[in-house]
C-alpha cells in the first residue's frame, strides 16, 4: 500500500507515519511530496486552513500513484480579538472521498499576533521569538507555548488519529 503525504516537513511526515503504522497493519510505502496548498502562505481562518489541508491531500493523488494522500495545514484564526493557532488535516482517496479533522487551538501572545497581522508567517516569527531554527519542524508554536508538553508532531498525531479513525470506520461501513 502506498500513502502520499503532501509535505516534506519532518514533524508532519513523522506524525503521519507513526499514526498510520499504528492502525494499518499492511506493508506501507510512504511518499512525501511538496505540493501547493493553494491558500495563503499564512492561512488566517479555520476555513482557509482546512481548505489548504484538503488541497494538499488531493494534490498528492495527482502527483503520485498512492491509494490515498494526507494534507496537513497549520494556520491562525481570530476569536474575540485574540489570535489562536488552528490546525487541520485531510485524507483524500482515489475514489474522491475527503475526510477532515482539526486539532488543538491555543491563544498566541499579542507580540506574535501583531507580527502575523503585519503580514509575516508564523514559522519565521516563531524562529525569531524562540531563537531557534526551523521551529515548525520541531516543537512548533504549540510546543513553545505549552512549555514543551505538546509538540507539533504530537498535535498532528492527535488530528491524524481522528482522521484515520473516520476513514477506517466509513471504509468498513
UniProtKB/TrEMBL annotation:
Top-level EC class: hydrolase
Biological processes, Gene Ontology terms: nucleotide metabolic process
EC number per UniProt: 3.6.1.73
Gene3D superfamilies, alphabetized: 3.90.950.10
Catalytic activity: ITP + H2O = IDP + phosphate + H(+); XTP + H2O = XDP + phosphate + H(+)
Annotated Pfam families: NTPase_I-T
Residues of the Non-canonical purine NTP phosphatase/PRRC1 domain: 6-165
This protein's name: inosine/xanthosine triphosphatase
Organism of provenance: Candidatus Kurthia intestinigallinarum
Amino acid at each position: 500500500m502506498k500513502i502520499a503525504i503532501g509535505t516534506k516537513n519532518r514533524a508532519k511526515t513523522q506524525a503521519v507515519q507513526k499514526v498510520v503504522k499504528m492502525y494499518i497493519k499492511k506493508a506501507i510505502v510512504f511518499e512525501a511530496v511538496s505540493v501547493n496548498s493553494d491558500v495563503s502562505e499564512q492561512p488566517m481562518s479555520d476555513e482557509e486552513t482546512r481548505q489548504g489541508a484538503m488541497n494538499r491531500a488531493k494534490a498528492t493523488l495527482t502527483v503520485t500513484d498512492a491509494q490515498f494522500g494526507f494534507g496537513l495545514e497549520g494556520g491562525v484564526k481570530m476569536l474575540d480579538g485574540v489570535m489562536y493557532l488552528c490546525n487541520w488535516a485531510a485524507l483524500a482517496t482515489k475514489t474522491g472521498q475527503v475526510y477532515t479533522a482539526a486539532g488543538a487551538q491555543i491563544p498566541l501572545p499579542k507580540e506574535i499576533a501583531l507580527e502575523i497581522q503585519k503580514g509575516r508567517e508564523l514559522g519565521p516569527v516563531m524562529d525569531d521569538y524562540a531563537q531557534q531554527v526551523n521551529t515548525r519542524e520541531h516543537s512548533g508554536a504549540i510546543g513553545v507555548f505549552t512549555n514543551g508538553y505538546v509538540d507539533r508532531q504530537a498535535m498532528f498525531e492527535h488530528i491524524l488519529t481522528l482522521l484515520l479513525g473516520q476513514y477506517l470506520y466509513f471504509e468498513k461501513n
